Fold this sequence. Notes:
By secondary structure, the protein is an all-alpha fold.
Amino acid sequence: MKYVNASNILPEKLIREIQKYVQGETIYIPKPETTYRKWGSLSGGRKLLDQRNSNIKSAFNSGTSIQELANEYFLSIDTIKKIVYSKHG
């Protein structure tokens, strides 16, 4: 997280208004929700997990047991159940 001195970027009138609530503290101003990105969307991690989960579902539907999938993918039985019984993907 990068810190910026408010006096370098905000109008003086706005700084005076903010000072009514907080002075000399570090505050975090979040991005608008419209700019949020889902986890892994930039790195490709989400795509890899979606593909893995799809492979797990396919193997389960082809007869591979939950225990075998847990062993093969190094996941807990509960995690495999969540994947194979989810309605997503």
